[in-house]
Design brief:
The complex is a heterotrimer of chains A (172), B (323) and C (118).
Chain A lengths: L2 H22 L3 H21 L3 H25 L2 H6 L6 H25 L8 H5 L3 H9 L4 H27 L1
Helix pairs in contact in A: 1-2, 2-3
Chain B lengths: L1 H36 L15 H10 L11 H18 L17 H10 L1 H11 L3 H32 L4 H7 L5 H4 L1 H14 L11 H4 L9 H26 L15 H20 L7 H29 L2
Helix pairs in contact in B: 1-11, 1-12, 3-4, 3-5, 3-11, 5-6, 6-9, 6-13, 7-11, 9-11, 9-13, 11-12
Chain C lengths: L5 H24 L6 H4 L18 H54 L7
The chains are: A mainly alpha (172), B mainly alpha (323), C mainly alpha (118).
């Protein structure tokens, strides 16, 4: 077993462990810290896969931004009010359904990658030439031009939604 | 293989020792500079010119009682001070002190720096929350908002530099500046970087979260002993690290200014420049009064952000059409 | 994994080791004389009132959300910054459109008062 493999198993086990802790912690802040560590170890695995740009984005956006936003929300919610609300609102069924869907999707993609010669625009060989970030830049602004511009509109929509939801509280 | 590992470990230990030396004498320099600016003397009694003061402070903090506040959230209370120092130490891995003296030359060094330093926000938020005390919580939330606002400006000003260089490797960035420092090509990005770096570290004039007059002491009010010291260590280590990054990005890293005195080795120049930026941060702290919180947030979102974005557009325009 | 990433693991071990070690040592060597008023949260000498973990101003949340949106926008600038020189004027104009939408989001937030503080 090569060193890369050993580290892969270490990081994989740790990310699954912290993912499990995330869903089992009752204290929301502890759950958020576990989620932070999950994201971090997933980023470590991206580095092992030579997807450095993805690893950096994973830490910047997920570990740095998303978990931070969650912590803000946790600190904004009144604890005594939150305790009164029933925690599972029939979410369990939906959660199981989504989880199954997700597993099927991953299985489908791995089978496709394993048996077919589908490798997308960015094969690992291409990524090795001149670095990961450059290769992403090369395809993102040429082949994927439209999705790239649509992303910014999507983000605009997200912000508009948030502002509308928070508006009456801002004015109050 | 074994040789490289031993060499890397040796380098890491030396880099870490230099960082800690800078941190220790950074606190000394701060007190001496503050003394000088306010027409006082500063530390004087421990050793010649008070040079042993940082050592004495460190030892004293070790032997102080480590209080864990009642009703505090124990795991979070312990994690926060550790998170305060870890990011700064992680960043030393990518700093090129000379053309061939660095721990590792990543091709995404600048993104690594941004990603790692974005984790500092958790030390602030969790430290404020864990103590179950009102002032630190308020200080922590303020501090975190300030941190994330200025982090965007920091990231955008780094984009300005990367656009000209065409690489995120700090070594390439410095090599690009052999003939002309980046500060002359991207002065606006430099100013924005410096403001954002100082604001991210919650230093005066942007030290609202620690505003003693209104918030007691900020997010680390409930910490004592070494845990308290860790927050300070983190602050000074982050100052040193962002001064070093600023040196690489804008002040030509290890190159001698205008190619004079080329016989002085590169790493000496690097350390001199890093210290000058560090000194600049101290100077600002003891010269300007604190700004208001709304002014602080307003400056990041309403002034710096549009300015850097326009700077990126103008740079792009000149590079694309100016040839 | 590329070879240049190995040292990061060593640096990470050093960083966490230093952080944890310092706290453990200070826990061991420091005196322990707890008493209730020393362990109570600090509120300028007055008896602490109520629980500190209360909800806060929604503006903090809006700033965090705005940060997340802009953070993703900035991510898209990184690969572009490395490649745009080789891709000519087309790359410049597409990023110009992107930044204009970026500024549009910004303007929207500004008009809606998200950036106003009190």
């Amino acid at each position: 077993m090569s060193y890369t493999e050993i580290f892969f198993y270490i990081f994989a086990v740790l990310s699954i462990l912290f993912a499990l802790l995330t869903v089992t912690r009752r204290n929301a802040v502890h759950a958020a810290i576990c989620l932070l560590l999950t994201f971090f170890f997933i980023a470590c695995n991206y580095v092992l896969l030579e997807a450095e740009f993805l690893a950096a984005v994973q830490v910047l956006v997920y570990a740095g931004g998303v978990v931070g936003l969650m912590l803000y929300v946790i600190m904004l919610v009144r604890k005594d009010e939150a305790d009164e609300v029933r925690q599972s609102l029939g979410q369990r069924v939906i959660a199981v359904f989504i989880a199954i869907l997700f597993v099927l999707e991953i299985a489908f993609i791995s089978l496709l990658a394993y048996y077919g010669n589908y490798s997308g625009f960015l094969s690992s060989k291409m990524a090795q030439i001149g670095g990961n970030t450059e290769s992403i830049g090369a395809v993102l602004y040429t082949y994927f031009l439209l999705p790239f511009e649509v992303v910014s509109v999507l983000l605009l929509a997200a912000l508009v939604g948030a502002v509308v939801l928070a508006k009456n509280r801002i004015e109050r | 293989m074994l040789e490289t590992v031993i060499l890397t470990i040796a380098k890491i230990i030396i880099f870490f020792a230099v960082l800690m030396f800078f941190v220790a004498y950074g606190t000394y320099a701060e007190r001496k500079v503050a003394g000088g600016i306010q027409d006082r003397i500063g530390p004087l009694h421990c050793g010649p010119f008070g040079l042993l003061q940082p050592l004495a402070d460190g030892l004293k903090l070790f032997f102080k009682e480590d209080i864990t506040v009642a009703k505090s959230d124990k795991p979070t209370y312990y994690i926060a001070p550790i998170l305060a120092v870890v990011p700064a130490i992680l960043v030393i891995a990518v700093i090129p002190v000379d053309e061939n003296i660095m721990i590792t030359d990543l091709n995404i060094a600048l993104l690594y720096f941004l990603a790692v330093s974005s984790l500092s926000v958790y030390a602030i938020m969790l430290g404020g929350w864990a103590g179950n005390s009102k002032y630190p919580l308020l200080g922590g939330l303020r501090s975190a908002s300030q941190f994330i606002s200025y982090e965007l400006v920091l990231g955008l000003s780094i984009v300005c530099v990367a656009m000209l260089v065409g690489s995120f490797s700090l070594r390439d960035v410095v090599l690009y500046q052999k003939d002309m420092w980046m500060v002359f090509k991207q002065p606006i990005a430099f100013i924005c970087y410096m403001i954002a770096a100082i604001a991210e570290l919650n230093r005066a004039p942007f030290d609202l979260p620690e505003a003693e007059s209104e918030l007691v002491g900020g997010y680390h009010t409930e910490y004592s002993s070494m845990k308290f010291a860790m927050f300070f260590l983190g602050e000074y280590a982050n100052m040193v690290v962002s001064s070093a990054i600023a040196t690489c990005l804008f002040l030509g890293g290890w190159y001698a200014p205008f190619s004079i005195l080329p016989f002085i080795p590169g790493f000496i120049w690097f350390l001199i420049k890093t210290f000058l930026i560090f000194f600049f941060m101290l100077w600002i702290r003891w010269t300007y009064p604190r700004v208001r919180f709304d002014q602080l947030m307003g400056m990041s979102w309403k002034v710096l952000m549009p300015v850097v974005l326009l700077n990126i557009l103008v740079t792009g325009f000149i590079v694309t059409f100016g040839r | 994994m590329r070879e240049v990433y190995w040292p990061l693991i060593l640096v990470a071990i050093l960083a966490f080791g230093f952080g944890i070690g310092t706290i453990v040592i200070s826990k061991l060597v420091g005196p322990k004389r707890p008493d209730p008023s020393k362990l109570s949260p600090y509120e300028c000498g007055v008896e602490p009132v109520g629980d500190a973990r209360k909800p806060f101003f929604i503006h903090y949340y809006m700033i965090a959300l705005l940060f997340l949106v802009f953070d993703i926008e900035v991510i898209f600038l990184y690969p572009w910054a490395l490649k745009f020189k080789e891709m000519g004027s087309f790359a410049f104009w597409e990023m110009a459109v992107f930044i204009v939408i970026f500024l549009g989001i910004f303007l929207y937030a500004y008009v809606k008062g998200v950036l106003e503080w009190e």
